[in-house]
Amino acid sequence: MSNVFVAVRIRPLIGREISHNEVSIVEANENTVHMRESMNQQNDDTNVYSTYKFTYDAVFNEETTQEEVYTKAAQQTVTNFLEGYNGCIMAYGQTGSGKTHTIMSSEFDGVIPQTIYEIFDYFQTKTAVNSNNQFVLRASYYQIYNENVLDLLNPTQINLKIREVQHQIYVENLSYFQLTCPQDLEKLIKIGNTNRIQAETKMNTNSSRSHSILTLYLDQSLFIKNELVQTSSKLQILDLAGSERAHSTQPERQRETKHINQSLAILGNVMQQIVQNQQNSTHIQFRDSKLTRILQDSVGGNCKTVLITNISPSNACFYETLNSLKFADRAKQIKQHAEINQIEDFSVRIQKYRLEIQRLQQKINEKGNPEEQQMQQQLQKQVDMLKSQIQSPKFDEFQKLFQQIKQLDEVRSQSANQQDQLNNLRNQSIKQRDILLILTSKLQEKETQIQQFLKELQDCYQQIAQSEEKIYQSGQNVDDNDEEEYTIDISQNTETDQILSYEQKMDELVQLKEEFTEENVQLEREWKQMQLQIKYEQKSLEDRADIVMRQVQVESADYLTECLKERDALIKIFAERVIPSVNELKKHDSKTAANNNDHSLQEKAKNLQIYIRNVRELIETSELRQKLQELFE
Ligand SMILES: Nc1ncnc2c1ncn2[C@@H]1O[C@H](COP(=O)(O)OP(=O)(O)OP(=O)(O)O)[C@@H](O)[C@H]1O
């Protein structure tokens, strides 16, 4: 009897979480997951107020590769499946925690792809050993969406029924496809995934809103030491839908979320029931949801089950992660009893033998080359051996014996269960005893503390009493002597001194005031004198200014008259001399170009220009003076 193999995979923080400044609160240490609960986003050690520790069969950290996950968690179950055991690999976890990445991944390198390559490698190896070994591998791919089973390979098939025949659970009318190479499965999954209901959720923009189940069915006919061994096994690989805490406002999304959370909660309950009731699986409510019904022969029965719980390391996902870790912890305690699905039933075995005889007989009858004839002879021997087994008189006896062995096996398995339960009880009572011991020692500690406090309290009371006594005694002493009188005398002396010093200061201040007043009168007198002097000075200045102004006006009038005279004289010169000279220049203008050598003329022109400039300046100056005169007037 073995436990469900439980692994936890921590994915790295993804872009969305990093951009929201979320931090990692989960750490993997070998097979243990440590999770911190912090007071705030900082997540440093000082803010941690609780830590959680869970141990599993395997823990994968952020850096673990897809190959490692497959090798450590899934490969053994795949090997068991090839040996004829049923198997189940489930990815469980919150929305966006990495279930699809683990099971499939967009690069097609998750558990499913690695499983299919391993299966076909196995076929090759076995066929190389004996070419008569035969394998038939088929696959079905369906989903449970809103409690409906839908065939992903034939979308017209909706709401399929789940049936049970001889403790085997199967989906009615489901389509199966035979796989002849790994690529066949890849194609099937691609077709199926396009039909898989996907919707955008708050946590993951490409979130799967349904539980998807890929089932591989393997029928093998192997020749082991010339004996035919036939097995038939089934491997289910589940990518469970993620649970969402936040509620969408869309009714359709709300309905999906309700169904997903309900079915996952029922899965949790069923696991709890299995753990509590390992022996009697008849009382376990597998029928409460489609998911648990389908998993009935996986989690509860003849199966090697692997649960990979995916978690996000982000502090924002604390509660979902804690729930997932608790769920995985519960699954760890489930015990399973898997058996190889060899065709053991005698009626089935006889039927198989007959078919095998027919097949071999057919081969024998076919004519072939010497090698084939040798092979035929060997086959004939096998046929005879099989016939003799069927016709043997001991066969009935053997069948009875076989039944007895089966019953004995059941009894043994029951007693093993009882032993397990006893062990559990013993472990529990040991745990309870330990807890009691711890509690007792804690109680003792508390009691010692209380005694200590009481003692301290008593000491305090004593000290207070002593102090009160001292006070009382000192009160009596005061009555008995004249110490108080002496104190009063001293204080009275001090007051008189103070008053004297105040009076002295007052005298000083009065004296100061008088001095100030005297000074003030003197200053006022000086001020008045200065004002008189200023007035006198102002008057004499004004008088002087008047005289100067008048002088200036007279002088400027004289000067102006002079200038005007000068101007008139210049205008006269200008009219008499300049204008005729200019006219003369103009006349000679054309000649000047030809006769550059007329130096006297050039000299004249130069002088004339200087003259004109001077005259202009004079005129301008005269105009300025005119303006000046206007101002004075
Ligand atoms: N181990 C990992 N390493 C790197 N990226 C990862 C890992 N696991 C998950 N991721 C990334 O995280 C995102 C969410 O992962 P995934 O879609 O597998 O989550 P899910 O649990 O299947 O979500 P849902 O339940 O909503 O379908 C994806 O972008 C995926 O590539």
Automatic annotation (TrEMBL):
InterPro entries: Kinesin-like_fam, Kinesin_motor_dom, Kinesin_motor_dom_sf, P-loop_NTPase. It comes from Hexamita inflata. One of its GO terms (molecular function) is microtubule binding. This is Kinesin-16. One of its GO terms (cellular component) is microtubule. The keyword ATP-binding applies. It holds the Pfam family Kinesin. Residues 3-334 form the Kinesin motor domain. SUPFAM superfamilies: P-loop containing nucleoside triphosphate hydrolases. The lineage of its organism: Eukaryota, Metamonada, Diplomonadida, Hexamitidae, Hexamitinae. It comes from the Eukaryota. Belongs to the TRAFAC class myosin-kinesin ATPase superfamily. Kinesin family. Residues 408-470, 499-533 form a coiled coil. Gene3D superfamilies: Kinesin motor domain. Keywords: ATP-binding, Coiled coil, Microtubule, Motor protein, Nucleotide-binding. GO terms for biological process: microtubule-based movement. The keyword ATP-binding applies. ATP binds at residues 93-100.
